[in-house]
Design goal:
- This protein has 186 residues and is an alpha/beta fold.
- It is built from seven helices and seven strands.
- A hairpin with a 2-residue loop joins strand 6 and strand 7.
- The protein is globular and about 45 Å long.
């Protein structure tokens, strides 16, 4: 995420919606996938109340930007990693965040399985995602770059998490192409 409009949307729309659906995660050890330039890590700590945040991104340039942004701001750690093969131990996070990242991952099911593996029982999962209808819309296909195969709709996305042992606790669909969901790991 290297776009001021996207940052505004994350702060003004995504975070309030996810807080309304899933509440805060005070004191949590949190993982953010696709952390970009570090805004999400800041918001997870400031708005959601996480004590420690590990933000990962596949792009090392984004990791460097995030490190500069968050250098003097509390317990935020930035690492370069692939969310389909997390270099992390099992069951270590209380809260996990997907601010519209999984729709960029070609094998998003592997990422969901990895997120599940590193989540503790009782962990909260906060997601905002773009669905197949948005990604494959003729106008957005020309403007934005997204994988076009193995995409999901709202119900398929929720079903995947439920099959992995997550219980849906909140959901809101803005349109057929976008939605927010919160889950708890059982």
């Amino acid at each position: 995420m290297n776009n001021p409009v996207r940052g505004w949307w994350q702060q003004r729309v995504e975070v309030p919606r996810l807080l309304a659906l899933g509440g805060r995660c005070d004191g949590a050890t949190a993982l953010e996938i696709g952390g970009g330039q570090g805004l999400g890590a800041q918001l997870i700590q400031q708005k959601f109340g996480a004590d420690q945040v590990l933000s990962i991104d596949l792009d090392m340039t984004m990791c460097r930007r995030a490190l500069r942004r968050t250098a003097s701001q509390g317990q935020r750690h930035i690492a370069q990693a692939d969310c389909t093969q997390l270099p992390l131990a099992d069951a270590q996070f209380d809260a996990l965040f997907d601010f519209g990242v999984l729709h960029h991952v070609p094998n998003w099911q592997s990422a969901a399985a990895e997120i599940t593996r590193v989540a503790r029982t009782g962990a909260q999962l906060y997601t905002m995602e773009m669905y197949r209808d948005f990604i494959q819309h003729p106008i957005w296909k020309r403007v934005l770059t997204h994988p076009q195969t193995n995409r999901f709709d709202h119900q398929e996305f929720i079903a995947c998490w439920q099959q992995l042992g997550w219980r849906l606790t909140g959901q809101h669909r803005l349109t057929q192409g976008m939605g927010w969901s919160t889950f708890v790991k059982t």
